[in-house]
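Sharing a chain and its predicted structure for anyone who wants a worked example. Both blocks are below, sequence first, tokens second.
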Amino acid sequence: SKNKVFDGHYKNNLKHGYGTQWKRDGSLSYRGDWSRGKMTGRGYRLHDDGTVIKGYFLDGKAHGFVTINGT
């Protein structure tokens, strides 16, 4: 997304492997595994409302066993 900064691996111009994504203001958006441009595998996601999701992701969404801590 053009509103985010990504530091990590790419494959075929898509985020792939391990990487960290920040919002433009410098706050963390997601840290973990990527596949074909989407959050897939183990990761840690921080939402704007302060909710934190840790666990497994598939195609950009929480999947399987996750822990959710929020406001």
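Comments welcome. Residues 12 and 36 are 8 Å apart (CA to CA).
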